[in-house]
Amino acid sequence: MDGPEKQPDTAAGDDPTPAARSRLRGLLRRTGSALAILAVAVAGVALGLLLAGRVNADIGPFRAELSVGPSLTGDTKVNIPPLGSLVLDTHQGPSQLTVKLGELDQGRVEALIDDPTGITRATQSVVGDIQRGLMRLGFRAAAVSMLAAMILAGLIYRRARPVAASGLTALALVLGSLGIGALTIRPQSIEEPRYEGLLVNAPALIGDVQKIASDYNKYAEQLQRLVGNVSRIYATVSTLPVYEPQEGTTRILHVSDLHLNPAAWPVIRTIVEQYRIDAVIDTGDITDWGSEPEASYVASIGLLDVPYVYIRGNHDSSPTQAAVASQPNAVVLDNEIADVAGLTVAGIGDPRFTPDKETAGRETTEEEQARLAATGARLDATVDAAGRPVQIALVHDPKMAGPLAGDVPVVLAGHTHNREVRELEPGLPTLLMTQGSSGGAGLRGLESEEPVPLALSVLYFDETKSLQAYDDIRVGGTGQSQVTLERHLIGDTIAAQPTPTGAPSPSPGGS
């Protein structure tokens, strides 16, 4: 009789031996340790780049901040305060380069001015300056990432081996991502920028960027020329001739239509200091779109040590006006009268808000003309009711000035980007002084075929508060280094032909 059938011993084959279980546990432990070290390294890289992954670079006389950070798509972001940013698909990999454009370094500008060959040498070194800045950024990013990872590992493990492993892993991550970026760089990406912020609304700038970026060499040449041109502007402004008026003379600087040009502020500051200006009068269009991000541009008003009288232009919004009013030395007039530097000044803002460039070339309609005239009449009624003489009235568009004829000796305006001085109405003692663009037609003037000069004027009032003379100052636009000054005495033949200082902003009836 056969005994019971013997069953196969499957359990012994399925159950790993103690040695196998030990090897499996060791593998899992090593994998977990490696993943933990990788996580610490990634966290260290992110923390290090966030806290210290940036360098300041001198690019000619300019200051810029270069920074690098984690990214899923790579690319390069160029921040242009207050306009917005450009995003360029420059490379692949987990790192994003950010370039923040800053202001001119006054000390470096003065050094370039003192050295006759400084500007030429600075323009030739621009591309090298950028390359050196990127090299410094790469070394710094690697160092701070490695250090941050080692500090985190030290806090977690408190043992030398995982600390060293975390630091080396972080270093490998940074160098690997930077290497991928260098190997996948796309110089042609500058022809395909993506615009964020206000630059979305700047098709003129888009064309200029693409024009200067047909290839890398042409881009480098344009960059060098831009540095040289702006440097020459500051060099010539620093040697403006100084007029020494009689004691008791009040000096007023008239500016208009800055249109966000950052180069205008150093020019204004230089003239204020060298001419010992008592007050600045701005007849509007300090911005382009009147948006909230542009409000930071007006912060330079507070750096001037004199009153800054302002009226709203058709490119300026109510938030723009509020931003100007928040400056400590600003005097904002909107159908109001104020005493400034011993003179009584009346002003009113433009009734329109028309920043849309799609309206380029359209003439002022009859309805708009009537609205402008009515606004001028409101200001004239305010002047009549003041009960005291008003020496200066401010309007943005010269079309608003008509009702003021015979009631105010001087009316200051802007809007047209054309300098013109004439009697407002024949036989009436009112002088209409329309300013050109003190911003050189804004950023649109930087790459125009014909350089657009910055136009400013200094008005001299004597002790009786009467206008005695004025100086017209024109600072050569990009590509030109000359500064011209023309003296005009009241009583001479002052009704001259309009002097163009740049095409008016594309909007109804002018800027």
TrEMBL record:
One GO term of the biological process aspect: lipid A biosynthetic process
A molecular function (GO) term: metal ion binding
Region (Disordered): 1-20
Presence of the UniProt keyword Metal-binding in the record: yes
TM region positions: 34-53, 137-157, 163-185
Top-rank taxon: Bacteria
GO cellular component, one term: membrane
Pfam families for the chain: Metallophos (PF00149)
Chain ranges of the Calcineurin-like phosphoesterase domain: 251-418
Ranges of compositional bias, category Low complexity: 9-20
Keywords: Hydrolase, Membrane, Metal-binding, Transmembrane, Transmembrane helix
Protein name (database record): MPP superfamily phosphohydrolase
Source species of the chain: Catenuloplanes indicus
